[in-house]
Write a structure and sequence with these properties.
The structure is a homodimer.
Chain A: H1 8-18, H2 21-28, H3 34-52, H4 56-61, E1 65-67, E2 70-72, H5 77-86, H6 105-118, H7 120-139, H8 142-154, E3 157-162, E4 178-181, E5 187-197, E6 206-213, E7 226-231, E8 233-235, E9 241-244, E10 247-252, E11 263-268, E12 274-279, H9 285-321, H10 342-373, H11 379-414, H12 426-433, H13 443-456, H14 461-476, H15 483-509, H16 514-519, H17 521-545, H18 553-567, H19 572-581, H20 584-588
Parallel strand pairs in A: 3-6
Antiparallel strand pairs in A: 1-2, 4-5, 5-11, 5-12, 6-7, 7-12, 8-9, 10-11
Keywords (chains A, B): FAD, Flavoprotein, Oxidoreductase
Enzyme class (chains A, B): oxidoreductase
Pfam family, one (chains A, B): Acyl-CoA_dh_C
């Protein structure tokens, strides 16, 4: 089995040379310098590879198991969670007043990648717990914060997000779960929620459910949804655990992947009603959810990067070892390692060049969030960073997770027939990755968000500003010698022009044929993903070429960038043409002829 | 669960209007008319949907099980096999003298698609049995034919292909299994074979293994490999089963998919040596295998088409039923079926347009084989058909099976969260499909074959002739009105030009930098797949527009064709650029920097 190796040298390259974490910390008022950041990354890497990676396969093979409403996690999960908590990793980016460490997103992004790479199934637990803590931090009363936040930040308790119901998946307007106000200010919750990640498990002493529900007089649709805290065990005013709440795990799902992560059907209020506490105001639950959504979608994007990195590492290790055939044009009458075969190298550099692009973009987006939240920054700067971050989040979520499908599939392909055998491990990455383009909003939902809220709502201003920034960096490549820089510069210029043409078409067409614009939403998101990836390669290449004594770094950066330009950015003109064709054939295909 | 519906109306359209099976039968001396062909397809469709489709899920969930060297297949498999045999389906394309029906490939291709669509795991058994029968028919002595062929053709016995060994996967030159000649003319076989499909099972009274092995004095490499028949039970001169041969199933694999198909580790000659009989001459085993390979690769291509069709049908049925959200720009305050959402339509027509293209290409290639084998045709015509068929087989194998990855993944995506739940069935298609780009030669191996043997060996003559034929049909689209025909005509012309440029580059570069040419092999194969798909859409559209009273057929054909032109053929310029860039970055990436 693979031993996951944290990508520490790439993290150093990004934080030191590409993005300059010291300058970033100064600009955002964070107390984090490069050495501390790298020490944190190294320590996280150790936990990820020594404690979490070893349980990944048990999570898959054994899985979480349900019996009589209780869920036991796979062997090793509870111990790994204890080690994780004790290391303080759950608290990394939360305020110090709740026991957190108040570190910037720029560092938590690189650390979170490692948890997901080591085991997505495991890392979903802290990811959801962070999400619940974030919701409370954003909108809850001081009393609720005092009762729940510290325990969630420390990882003593874990959290869940209860949105989906059988009839309400992507469409939260259809939520039916009811919340009845009680005399004491609490509510009684009744309803069924499905697809609840870590809805029930044996790793923590309490589980704090955040639940979307409707009060009886609430308006129809999304404007009538409220958010409630519903603990598994009620919490006394002294902080001690009290009675079991009226909430039960009815079953867990039998899934294609992430077997180690229990996906629960939760029943609220089978008897007297589950006791819940309103977070924020009635009917404004979805607003709180939307604030969190950027966070959660970014986190799922990181999962896409993480599983890609893991699959790539494993495939590369196999390609080095496996001897088969004689590579064309090379010595090796006794056979050569398949790493020498042209197509294996094509696949591996394809994976690598996408991973390089994704990790840089993840750090860039995390830094935008830090800038947007830095209290001393001026409002204009914060707002610009916020808008760019919000524009990029659906790209991170959509593009990273679609990439993960191709990369885990290519990684399996490198193994040949062995890839199809479960014991090899490559199949698990493919299976685990398959949920990523679905949960936290499908790729189409990300793409619709990118088209509607993020592009057309401001008439393309944020998009145009980003294109300007990319073109500026592309021009800086003129100072760099070599084919890679030349290819990348030309491809970025051509890609920006293609995106500008598509943008113009979208703005002109939205009023007369909005369905045609949205039929091109996914290709539009793909174009942006590729373009931002190419942009990040420009930043990497510019940083690498200024370094003296960097060993193979400049060469490797150039080749990864050049490959991305000639084999990934080359897809953009075709995709842009697809957008502008309006998919009219798909929209008008006769219903009777399907 | 899905009820598989055989695509009878498309089969009728292809056999009647696009390709004219009556004219084809006359030209190839086959005694098959349209009505008979459609009656056969209908009858096969009934067996596929009524008897084989229902066991598909049991195959997945229960799987084949090994105990003490015996393998029991999943519930229903043995009964389905009995029904299949009794219907005479195993015998469809074999000569009448061995109990077959002597039908052309054009009909067996459409029928074989149905078996694979109903259950790939089940259909692998007749597929391998046909392969073994084909090998004997091609190269075995009359005695061997008399002993084994009729039983294989009738399906009383089944067959296997034993090529792979742990160190000899794609590289058969590394085969180590030994064969020692005996005084009586038989051989004793010793060695281990892996990945043997249906190597052991309980569905037939005997299993006939075809085994690649080396005699002691054989030359090294592929020129020293011989082919042997090794029956599980020895067969007496009276045709009765005798003693158990010295061959044993040591275990079966735990795989990502096709759980119903046992994949065996076979041990030959643990004791005195397994008794085997030479097929053809010593050291010429690989030649026989190569003749069969076109057959087997074509069959795996059909599996790609088949699982795509099944996944598409299931996703379409769900999209019709599932109500979620309100589709943009449409009525439906109570929600609309997701079939009305633009991106769902985009995904579904993307699948459909690829399936339409693949099925037409499958029939076309099958007809080339019929023409090549028709005894009354002149040698020039037969030779041209043979060369075109050999050119297209790696495209069918490589492109169809890569398409199957995307189509089964998109089908799962249509289901949203439900797609990730195993009970839905969509995940099984994705898992089953994943082997298709690997076995019978990976996509890279198909692509290398297409570049080397099929394109460069005759200096691009076969490729150029095919481009001429495609351009001729593209010009015929001038007579067809509408945007679809115009888009398709333009895209085909542009694609042919791009392929001609790539061909020229390949011919010029092969002498100086063969590795660069082969680094572009997979994109080259993808270009050809897309181009041939577009060509088939031209043939379909030309046929559909000449029909009066064809209901929605002309519209549906035009929209499928137009979509393919604007969203699939649009990928060709980028792919052609990738080919001609030579992937130099991948080839020269520093080994120490991976």
């Amino acid at each position: 089995m693979s031993q996951y190796r944290p990508p520490l040298s790439d993290i150093r390259f990004l934080l030191q040379h590409v993005f300059d974490i010291d300058a970033h910390s100064r600009a955002t008022g964070a107390s984090l310098d490069l050495d501390t950041a790298l020490a944190i990354a190294e320590e996280a890497g150790r936990l990820a590879s020594d404690r979490i990676d070893p349980i990944n396969r048990a999570g898959d093979v054994h899985g979480a198991r349900w019996k009589d409403g209780e869920v036991s996690t796979a062997p090793g999960f509870a111990d790994a969670w204890r080690a994780f908590r004790e290391g303080g990793w759950s608290a990394l980016r939360f305020p110090e007043e709740y026991g957190g460490q108040g570190l910037p997103m720029a560092i938590s992004a690189v650390v979170d990648e490692m948890w997901h790479a080591a085991s997505i199934s495991f890392a979903l637990c802290p990811m959801l717990t962070n999400g619940a803590a974030e919701a409370l931090l954003t909108a809850a009363s001081d009393t609720l914060k005092a009762t729940y936040l510290e325990k969630l930040v420390s990882g003593a308790w874990t959290g869940t997000m209860n949105l989906t119901e059988p009839q309400a998946g992507s469409d939260l307007a259809a939520v039916k779960t009811r919340a009845l106000a009680q005399a004491d200010g609490s509510y009684r919750i009744h309803g069924q929620k499905i697809f609840i990640t870590y809805g029930e498990h044996d790793m923590a002493e309490n589980i704090i459910h955040l639940v979307l529900a409707r009060t009886p007089d609430a308006p129809a649709g999304v404007k009538g949804i409220s958010l409630f805290v519903v603990p598994k065990f009620l919490v006394g005013t002294d902080g001690r655990l009290g009675a079991r709440n009226d909430v039960r795990c009815a079953s867990i799902e039998h899934k294609l992947g992430i077997h180690g992560s229990p996906t629960a059907v939760m029943l609220f209020g089978e008897h007297e009603g589950a006791i819940g506490y309103l977070v924020g105001e009635e009917n404004r639950g979805l607003e709180t959810m939307f604030i969190m959504m950027n966070e959660a979608r970014f986190a799922v994007g990181l999962q896409g990067l993480a599983i890609s990195e893991r699959a790539y590492q494993h495939a590369l290790a196999y390609a080095r070892e496996r001897v088969q055939g004689k590579a064309l044009g090379e010595d090796g009458s006794q056979g050569t390692s398949i790493l020498r075969h042209p197509d294996v190298r094509r696949m591996l550099l394809g994976m690598r060049s996408h991973i390089d692009a994704m990790r840089a973009l993840a750090v860039y987006v995390a830094m935008q969030k830090d800038i947007a939240h830095a209290p001393d920054n001026d409002a204009g700067e914060r707002d610009a960073a916020q808008r760019r971050m919000e524009f990029l989040v659906p790209i991170v979520k959509g593009w990273f997770t679609e990439n993960a499908q191709h990369i885990t599939s290519d990684a399996l392909q490198v193994f040949g027939g062995m890839g199809f055998i479960e014991e090899t491990g490559a199949a698990q990455y493919l299976r685990d990755a398959r949920i990523l383009t679905i949960y936290e909003g499908t790729t189409a939902i990300q793409a619709n968000d990118l088209v509607g809220r993020k592009t057309l709502r401001d008439d393309g201003a944020t998009a145009a500003a980003l294109l300007d920034a990319i073109e500026t960096d592309a021009r800086r490549l003129e100072a760099v010698d070599g084919r890679a820089a030349a290819s990348l510069r030309a491809a970025l210029a051509q890609s920006c022009a293609a995106l500008r043409a598509a943008l113009l078409w979208m703005r002109e067409t939205q009023a007369t044929d909005a369905r045609a614009v949205y039929a091109g939403a996914v290709p539009y998101l793909e174009c942006w993903g590729l373009l931002c990836g190419g942009w990040m390669h420009a930043r990497r290449l510019l940083a690498a070429t200024t370094l003296a004594d960097a060993g193979t770094l400049p060469d490797a950066s150039a080749m990864s960038a050049g490959y991305f330009a000639e084999h990934a950015l080359s897809r953009i003109p075709g995709l842009a043409a697809s957008i502008m064709s309006g998919a009219s054939f798909a929209l008008h295909f006769p219903d009777s002829a399907w």
